Every structure is written in C-alpha cells, then in structure tokens.
C-alpha cells in the first residue's frame, strides 16, 4: 500500500513541479501515470519510491520497495548476477536471477554491466525492481529499450506483481493501457487528475512507432457501450477511473474499443456482472 | 543495521571494482615507506608525520567512496535500502574500516621496519592519534561530497585540510600531532571531537539529495 499525501516539490527558481499531490495505490489496483515531458512524473515516482525527499508532504510505503528509474544506469561496474545479489541483500530478500531468463536476458552475466546493450541493462533494472516480492513497485518507463517479446513478458509479470504489490508505472508506449484493472492518472500543472486511456494520453504523437496503432491519433477511436450491474455503481466507476451514467444498480459506460477488454476484466474483478456489450 | 551492513558490502565491492580508492591508499603507503625507510628517530614523534598524511588521505578515500555510485544508481540503492540513512551508514562503515586499516599499518610499520620499539601505552597513543586524523578526514570527505561539482569538492577539501591540520591547539588533527611530538597531552579530546565530526558528516551525507 502506498499513500502520498499533499506532496510538494519545486526545483530552484522554477514553478512547482508537484503542487499538493495525493495518491493512493493498493495491491490489485495498479496506477498508470501519464503526462507530458517534464510534467514531473519522474519526480513523483522518485518521491513515491523513497529515492528523493519531497519539499513538503507525507509518503507512507511498505518496507520492501522495487524502483526502476527512467534511465537505468548503463555504466555499472558489477556483473548482473553480483548486482542482483547485492540489491536483494540490501532489501533483505532472496535474489531472483531467474527473472533475467524470463525477460529473455541474452548478455554476459559475469562481466561488467557496462558491456550490456541498453535492452539487456533495462532487463537487469527490471529484475532488481521486481524480484524478492516487494510490497511496492515503482517503474519509470519500464518498456524503454525492450524488444517486442520482452515487452509482452513484462505485461504478464506486471499482472502477477500487481496482485500482491502496489504498482505505480509511467509509460508513453501505450502498452500500460493493457494492464488489467489499472487506474489511469495524468499529471499536469503539478496536480493529478483521472484520465482514462485513449483520451490522447498514453497513445499520442511521438510514441514508439512499433506499438502506436496507425490512425489512432487522427481518427476517432471506435467506442464500445457497456452495461454493468453492480452493488454500488458510483464506487465502481470511480475505481475504474471512468465516468458513466448510473441508473439504479446499473452502470452505463462508453469506452474506447481498445480499452473495453481490460475494463471488463477489471469490472468482473470488482464483483460486477456484465449485462451487455456492444457498439455504440 | 542489517541493511547498512549489506550496503557496506555493496559499496566496498563497487569501490574495489572502480579501483579509485587505491590511489589515496597507495599515497599513504608511499609516505610510510619514505618516512620510516631511513632513521626516523625514537617513537612516538615520527608518527606525527604519518598522522598528518592520513588526514587528507582519509578525506580523499571518503570522498571517493561517497561518489562511487552515480546519482541515478544511488537512487536505486536508496529506494532499496528504505532511505538515504542506511546508505550513508553503509558508506561510513567502509570508510571507517579503511581508516582502521591504514591507521594500523601506519602504527605497525616503524615497529617492524625500524629498530625503535615502543611501550604498549605509546602504541595506543599512536593508534588513537591516527584514528582521530582518519575519522576527521572521513568527516571532511563526506562534507566535500555534498558539493555539486568535483572541482569544488577538491578545493574545499584542500582548504579545510590545510587550515585545520597545522594548528597545534586545534583538535582533532593539530592537537593529536602536537601530543605525539611533545609526548604529552591526552588523546581523548581529539578522538572525541573526531567522532563528533564523523557523526555530523554522516548525517549530512544522509541529507544529500
């Protein structure tokens, strides 16, 4: 469980980067954070992970934290296995070198990490952040530099991790839109707002060409109409991070078609029944 | 505490791989070889010179240890350790271990390599004087590590060491050297002041952004 309360941060002579940010993140309810370049996402993640102190505000986090910075250092002198062993010992957990194999790590494991390619170095960074059953996982652009296969594996890994740990992720490749049951938030002007994916946030100009669907930016997204039956429709809409019409125990939603599957899965996990799904 | 020791093992391993800590250590060994190679005279007075040498050497070592990791690498370590406190404490453990090692070597060298012996009390005095200088150097090195550029760190370190080492009344280093050379004066105050300084330096290191 992660609680960020009233966090402020500013850099010298600049406007506030974070201007009273509140954020709650629990196991089973991952948070995907969006925002423009320089909007303060990485600053917020550093503070959430405990790697930086806020100028004001409170952060409560579990004892074991996995953190991946936006540019995992490529010039480390240690070999990958030695680095993972040391970081696990610092966390007080057992090392998980098998994560490297799952991610398709193909570099030398007993030579300095400075000889690794960017993608392989990123896999070491992911293995240190995800290994050892952390209570909070904070990943800044985890898909950066990964090949397509490793990117898919990472989605599966994140689904496993999110069941037991609070998960906070930034992403501009659009892949995080497929994390089931995630809340999507956007950081702008130093404040967090709810922001369902597809609203020009996670998919937009300048995203990785291999993943952004052609036409996703210019053409309007096809929408899907969903009717859910749930005990407390308003609470469900809030937790799903969508706005919809509540009528009795029914929740009527219009969501982008690309998001419908993930949203349905999340709704089912929240105990709702699906009454109908169809084109708008 | 367990985390601090795990950080200490990590920092020691990383610093050893970087090999930058070898330069100050080699410098101290060079000073000892020159100092005790000929006829230095009866102990404890010759230890005054090795104490003076250990002060900047320990500062250089501590600065190197505190900057072994680049800032991004350190942010990962700090998050893993649960805050900057255990990371600063782990760095301190490695720096103090190096101080103890170099102090012991400096005290033992003339006992082995020269015909002059020393009573256990004199040996203890020599050891405490070296430790006071080593810990004070560690505190100066940690303080210099807070400056944003290595050039400023170097300038600040040189100025602080030069200004504080040559005042015979000033604990810890000036007073420790004076105590060795005159053969009188207690080392409790220099060691106590050095411990306070190194505690303050470590606390400052833990506040580093």
UniProtKB/TrEMBL annotation, chain A:
Keyword list, A-Z: ATP-binding, Nucleotide-binding, Transport
Domain ABC transporter intervals: 2-214
InterPro entries linked: AAA+_ATPase, ABC_transporter-like_ATP-bd, ABC_transporter-like_CS, ABC_Transporter_VariousFunc, P-loop_NTPase
Keyword Nucleotide-binding (UniProt): yes
One Gene Ontology term of the molecular function aspect: ATP binding
Protein name: ABC transporter ATP-binding protein
Lineage of producing organism: Bacteria, Bacillati, Actinomycetota, Actinomycetes, Pseudonocardiales
From TrEMBL, chain B:
Domain of life: Bacteria
Keywords: Membrane, Transmembrane, Transmembrane helix
Protein name: ABC-2 type transport system permease protein
The organism of origin for this protein: Pseudonocardia xishanensis
Taxonomic lineage: Bacteria, Bacillati, Actinomycetota, Actinomycetes, Pseudonocardiales
TM ranges: 21-38, 44-66, 87-109, 121-143, 150-167, 187-206
Claim: Hydrolase is one of the keywords in the record: no
Keyword Transmembrane assigned: yes
């Amino acid at each position: 469980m992660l609680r960020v309360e009233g966090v402020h941060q500013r850099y010298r002579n600049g406007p506030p980067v974070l201007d009273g940010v509140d954020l709650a993140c629990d196991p089973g309810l991952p948070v995907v954070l969006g925002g423009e370049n320089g909007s303060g996402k990485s600053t917020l993640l550093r503070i959430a992970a405990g790697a930086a102190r806020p100028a004001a505000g409170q952060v409560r986090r579990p004892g074991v934290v996995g953190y991946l910075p936006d540019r995992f250092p490529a010039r480390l002198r240690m070999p990958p296995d030695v680095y993972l062993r040391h970081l696990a010992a610092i966390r007080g957990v057992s090392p998980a070198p098998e994560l490297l194999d799952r991610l398709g790590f193909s570099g030398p494991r007993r030579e300095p990490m400075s000889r690794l390619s960017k993608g392989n170095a990123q896999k070491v960074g992911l293995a240190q952040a995800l290994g050892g059953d952390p209570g909070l996982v904070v990943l800044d652009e985890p898909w950066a530099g990964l090949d397509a296969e490793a990117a898919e594996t990472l989605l599966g890994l994140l689904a496993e991790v999110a069941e037991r740990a609070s998960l906070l992720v930034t992403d501009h490749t659009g892949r995080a839109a497929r994390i089931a049951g995630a809340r999507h938030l956007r950081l702008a002007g130093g404040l967090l707002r709810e922001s369902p994916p597809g609203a020009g946030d996670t998919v937009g100009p300048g995203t990785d060409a291999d993943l952004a669907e052609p036409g996703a930016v210019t053409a309007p997204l096809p929408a899907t109409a969903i009717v859910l039956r749930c005990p407390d429709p308003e609470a469900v809409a809030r937790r799903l991070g969508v706005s919809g019409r509540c009528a009795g125990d029914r929740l009527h939603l219009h969501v982008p078609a690309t998001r419908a599957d993930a949203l349905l899965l999340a709704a089912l996990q929240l105990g709702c029944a699906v009454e109908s799904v169809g084109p708008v | 505490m367990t985390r601090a020791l795990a950080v200490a093992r990590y920092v020691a391993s990383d610093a050893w791989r970087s090999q930058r800590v070898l330069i100050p250590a080699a410098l101290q060994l060079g000073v000892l070889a020159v100092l005790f190679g000929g006829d230095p005279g009866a102990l404890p007075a010759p230890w005054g010179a090795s104490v003076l040498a250990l002060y900047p050497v320990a500062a250089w070592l501590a600065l190197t240890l505190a900057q072994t990791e680049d800032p991004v690498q350190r942010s990962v370590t700090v998050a893993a350790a649960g805050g900057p406190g255990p990371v600063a404490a782990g760095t301190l453990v490695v720096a103090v271990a190096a101080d103890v090692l170099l102090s012991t070597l400096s005290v033992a060298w003339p006992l082995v390599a020269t015909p002059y012996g020393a009573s256990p009390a004199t040996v203890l005095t020599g050891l405490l004087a070296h430790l006071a200088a080593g810990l004070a150097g560690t505190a100066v090195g940690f303080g210099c590590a807070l400056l944003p550029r290595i050039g400023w760190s170097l300038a600040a370190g040189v100025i602080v060491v030069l200004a504080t080492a040559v005042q015979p009344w000033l604990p810890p280093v000036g007073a420790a050297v004076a105590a060795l050379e005159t053969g009188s004066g207690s080392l409790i105050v220099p060691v106590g002041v050095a411990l306070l300084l190194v505690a303050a330096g470590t606390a400052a290191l833990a506040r580093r952004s």
